[in-house]
Amino acid sequence: MQRAKRVMQVVGGLAASVALVTTGASVVSADPAAAKIEKAVKVGPQRQDLTISSPAMGGEVQVTVLLPQDQSGSRGTLYLLDGAGDKTDVSDWVSKGHAPEFFADKDVNVVLPSGKGAFYTDWEKRDPVLGQPKWETFLTKELPPLIDEAFNGDGNNAVAGLSMGGQAAFALAARNPGLYTGAGSMSGCPPVTGIANESYVRATVARDGGDANNMWGPWGSPGWAAHDPSKRLDALRGKNLYLSAGTGIAGPLDEQTKGEDGLPPETVTALGGGLEVGAYRCSLEFALVLRARGVPATENFHTVGTHAWPYWAKDLGSMWPVLARGL
């Protein structure tokens, strides 16, 4: 009897150690070396901003979660990734991409991390500016169990993103096919091998002050091929795939462009046009490879469009029905 009582005390103590109450979420693991939700701030009835302690990232990571109106049942989860550039603690999808408004009536969890210039990958070496993040480990091993436990995730996941996040979405899906039912890229460059593609990625990292040699190694290193989804097409077969990009030619939505960093709107649009030309070429190259290998994907290549938020916000409405099939 005493032994049974002791067992119950131990079990009760373990249960208490994992039940750390926050403002809307709970720590999933009592292991001090495991990732855990340290804090959850309820911004509104359908949004929580999380602070997650991540061993892989070597510190705290800020993640926004958008929730459906009816939160009583289980649901799938969309991981929606940002592009490069200056970041706050909240994803640009919230402030610029109108994601909260778009997903307000959708039955899905939407997880929005932010990853400045780091391509959501595990860096091989420490970078003087960007450090040595382990984004892939965080996104594929640490974060999903926390989200599913705290927000009734049913284990079905999709991943998508814009620009840098679009490349990462396909790389993550190709490298972790059992985790995702679909992947989407807007104005991204999914294939990263070859002079043109590697140059595009290196330039993106450099704009945020990083050195891509620390990410996947020197030019043409095995690390680049290991993160090129065009080298892992069989892993994408049967998944819900979406690709979009514009030609770089300015269109009506560019009238919404504002000046940035002291540059007038016209210059910002011109720079965005140049970036989108590269993304269009790279995305089209990837689409042709998918076609040649018989891997179906929904393609949405636009006759106009620059590297700008109005186009990505609009594309969200085209991409969602594709990814929703697996959620």
Order of helices and strands: HEEEEHHEHEHEHHHHEHEH
Compute the number of structural domains. 1
CATH superfamily heading: Alpha/Beta hydrolase fold, catalytic domain
Strand content: 15-25%
Give me the number of helical elements.
Answer: 11
The parts where pLDDT drops under 50 for at least 5 residues are 1-30
How many individual β-strands? 9
Radius of gyration: 20 Å
The average pLDDT value, as a whole number, equals: 90
Biggest sheet layout? 9 strands, mixed
Secondary structural class: alpha/beta
Give the distance, in angstroms, between the N- and C-terminal Cα atoms.
48 Å
The strand order across the widest sheet is: 1-2-3-5-4-6-7-8-9
CATH architecture classification name: 3-Layer(aba) Sandwich
Outline type: globular
Kindly state the percentage of residues in helix: 25-40%
The fold-level CATH name is: Rossmann fold
CATH class: Alpha Beta
How would you characterize the overall build of this protein?
With 327 residues, the protein is α/β, with parallel strands linked by helices. The chain has one domain: Rossmann fold (3-Layer(aba) Sandwich). 38% of the residues lie in helices and 20% in strands. It contains eleven helices and nine strands. It has helices at residues 2-18, 92-95, 99-103, 135-151, 164-175, 195-207, 213-216, 222-226, 233-236, 265-292, 309-324, and strands at 36-44, 47-54, 59-66, 75-81, 109-113, 153-162, 182-186, 240-246, 298-302. It has a nine-stranded mixed beta sheet with strand order 1-2-3-5-4-6-7-8-9, with helices on both faces. The longest helix has 28 residues, at 265-292. The radius of gyration is 20 Å and the shape is globular.
